[in-house]
């Protein structure tokens, strides 16, 4: 590599070399020459493939692209399956470069990066049909049936003053600004309110005022946030899609093919639940027969249909490299008491997918 100096008629000269007349022209101080030489060497080193120095200085960014970026989708109560997915990835020593989460995906992903996954799993497994009401504070005359203060207090207690930018890996919580419809990526600030904003299901939870915006559930605009991972130039993106696999869900049905005699039977399934404000009935499980829907139950199922269509559209335009889709057909969106089953299904499906990836030599490449 050339010294810092000058070139006269094609001949290289040092910065303080003598010119032909015997005089010395002091172009630079010796300290300046040494600094310039080091800078030149740094540039040359980077060109030869060494890591960018700025990334080395920042531990979070130095591992920013090493491993798998997780896009954890929304799914209300089915989101406990994310816990099983993360357990399986940890067991397989799969490095995680970042997490983008929507709704319940933001809850699980944020708690995981904050080192609170054990506490979250203990809380999830403790929920039963009876004690779920202790976490629900109903409110009337507001912009949601549930104020969400009790759940917020639980999150604040566990996460305290943890800030997103202080997590050891990059984290993005996806929310929707209700005033404009904008997709909002929460990348800094306090973790707990960012998570709350991401899961504030419209009509059920009150919107969350955070960082000067009125925010609701991110699943309205980005149910499985692969795009958030791609925006940070992640090499491998793994999506966890909790959407229910229902055959021919997007089909168009003509009126001539509808069974008119089924009208009365279908009407009975829409009878109110034990309380008109509850989204579910405690008298039966989804695996034995269809749930009777309350007011919020109808809203959630409508939201589910919208989410399904959005997922299809967004993932078609920006597909992930790997998709984990736990078989959650028997888990309803409001079956919070079925955390153990959801976690196990998420764990088993991830182990299955990892085994297939290992056979293809993919795991070795990303590890």
Any overview of this molecule?
Strand 9 and strand 10 form a beta hairpin. Helix 5 packs antiparallel against helix 8. The two termini are 36 Å apart. This protein has helices spanning 30-47, 53-57, 59-62, 81-91, 104-113, 117-126, 149-159, 191-198, 226-231, 263-268, 295-317, 339-359, 362-366; strands spanning 5-8, 11-14, 68-72, 96-102, 144-146, 170-177, 183-186, 203-205, 208-210, 213-217, 237-240, 322-324. Strands 3, 4, 6, 7, 9, 10, 11 and 12 form an 8-stranded mixed beta sheet that branches. The model is unreliable at 1-20, 22-28, 39-59 and 272-290 (pLDDT under 50). With 367 residues, it is α/β, with parallel strands linked by helices. It has 13 helices and 12 strands.
Using the alpha-carbon principal axes, give the shape. Answer: globular
Query: What's the β-strand tally?
Result: 12
Give Rg in angstroms. Answer: 27 Å
Low-confidence stretches: 1-20, 22-28, 39-59, 272-290
Q: Helix tally?
A: 13
**Overall mean pLDDT:** 77
Structural class: alpha/beta
Report the major sheet. 8 strands, mixed
List the defining traits of the structure above.
38% helix; 367 residues; 13 helices; 14% strand; alpha/beta
């Amino acid at each position: 590599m050339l010294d810092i100096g000058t070139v006269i008629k094609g001949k290289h000269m040092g910065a303080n070399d003598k010119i032909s007349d015997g005089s010395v022209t002091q172009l630079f101080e010796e300290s300046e020459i040494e600094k310039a030489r080091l800078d030149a060497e740094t540039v040359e080193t980077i060109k030869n493939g060494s890591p960018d120095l700025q990334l080395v200085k920042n531990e979070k960014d130095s591992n920013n692209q090493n491993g798998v970026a997780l896009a954890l989708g929304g799914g209300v109560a089915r989101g406990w399956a994310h816990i099983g997915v993360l357990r399986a990835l940890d067991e397989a020593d799969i490095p995680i470069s970042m997490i983008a989460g929507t709704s319940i995906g933001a809850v699980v992903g944020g708690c995981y990066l904050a080192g609170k996954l054990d506490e979250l799993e203990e809380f999830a497994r403790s929920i039963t049909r009876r004690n779920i009401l202790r976490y629900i504070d109903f409110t009337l005359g507001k912009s949601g049936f549930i104020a969400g203060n009790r759940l917020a207090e639980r999150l604040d207690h566990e996460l305290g003053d943890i800030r997103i930018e202080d997590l050891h890996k990059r984290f993005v919580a996806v929310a929707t600004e209700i005033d404009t419809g904008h997709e909002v990526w929460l990348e800094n600030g306090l973790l707990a309110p960012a998570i709350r904003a991401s899961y504030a299901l419209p009509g059920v939870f009150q919107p969350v005022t955070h960082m000067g915006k009125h925010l609701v559930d991110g699943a309205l605009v980005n149910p499985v946030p692969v795009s958030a991972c791609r925006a940070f130039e992640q090499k491998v993106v793994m999506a966890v899609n909790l959407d229910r696999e229902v055959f021919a869900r997007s089909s168009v049905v003509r009126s001539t093919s509808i069974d008119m005699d089924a009208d009365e039977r279908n009407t009975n399934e829409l009878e109110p639940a034990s309380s008109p404000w509850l989204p579910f009935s405690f008298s039966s499980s989804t695996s034995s027969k269809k749930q009777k829907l309350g007011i919020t139950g109808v809203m959630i199922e409508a939201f589910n249909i919208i989410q399904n269509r959005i997922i299809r559209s967004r993932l078609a335009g920006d597909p992930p490299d790997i998709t984990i889709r736990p078989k959650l057909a028997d888990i309803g969106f409001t079956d919070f008491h079925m955390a153990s089953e959801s976690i196990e299904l998420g764990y088993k499906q991830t182990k299955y997918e990892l085994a297939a990836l290992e056979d293809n030599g993919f795991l070795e490449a990303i590890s």
